[in-house]
């Protein structure tokens, strides 16, 4: 069987905020403390903390080069800037991992046609734009795929993702929004890829 020209399968994880369980976890670090954020690594368990039942969200504070990550008492999904200090809040498991400020944390708004990344495939002399596909916010851009693009093929349901996006809308409206979106199931997506590969192989033959 001839190898397809399509080298990478791009998987965008679309997330929406649901109810929080008592098992909410947040990343915790503080520059100047025992676990400075300058050494932060989302892969290391020592930076993960189980929040108490009264804590409903996660927090990231960015003041110049200094950062603080912690659990937070209230359920908020927003970023604000006051006196040149940025405060970002989110309400899902391990959502405060962003290494930078607003743009990576979720304040960057996108529309269905917004380009979230560009990909150049082997044997092609042009760049493909990868669109957001939804109206919402960028929660996280996966920096790992820049260093290791094969993650998209090796682990498409885990670490091999391009971005995590949050749908725009009130919690009670999200199910309706999703039901009205022309999304593909996993089986439909895989069939689309197979059909595309067969077409490409036929063209090569």
From TrEMBL:
The keyword Signal applies. It holds the Pfam family GCV_H. The keyword Signal applies. Keywords: Signal. InterPro entries: Abitram (IPR039169), GCV_H/Fam206 (IPR033753), Single_hybrid_motif (IPR011053), Snake_toxin-like_sf (IPR045860). Gene3D superfamilies: 2.40.50.100. Residues 1-21 form the signal peptide. Belongs to the ABITRAM family. This is Protein Abitram. It comes from Diabrotica virgifera virgifera (western corn rootworm). The gene is LOC114325142.
């Amino acid at each position: 069987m001839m190898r397809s020209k399509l080298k990478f399968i791009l998987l965008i994880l679309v997330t929406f905020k649901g109810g929080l369980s008592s098992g909410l976890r947040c990343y915790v670090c503080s520059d100047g403390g025992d676990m400075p954020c300058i050494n932060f690594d989302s892969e290391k368990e020592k930076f993960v903390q189980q929040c108490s039942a009264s804590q409903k969200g996660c927090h990231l504070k960015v003041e110049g080069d200094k950062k603080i990550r912690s659990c937070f008492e209230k359920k908020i999904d927003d970023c604000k800037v006051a006196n040149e200090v940025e405060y970002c809040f989110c309400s899902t498991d391990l959502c405060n991992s962003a290494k930078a400020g607003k743009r990576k944390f979720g304040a960057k708004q996108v529309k269905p046609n917004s380009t979230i990344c560009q990909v150049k495939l082997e044997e092609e002399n042009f760049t493909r734009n990868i669109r957001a596909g939804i109206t919402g916010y960028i929660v996280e851009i996966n920096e790992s795929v820049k260093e290791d693009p094969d993650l998209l093929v090796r682990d498409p349901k885990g670490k091999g993702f391009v971005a995590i996006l949050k749908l725009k809308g009130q919690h009670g409206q999200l199910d309706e929004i999703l039901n009205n979106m022309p999304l593909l199931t996993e089986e439909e997506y895989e069939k689309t890829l197979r059909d595309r590969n067969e077409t490409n192989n036929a063209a090569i033959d």
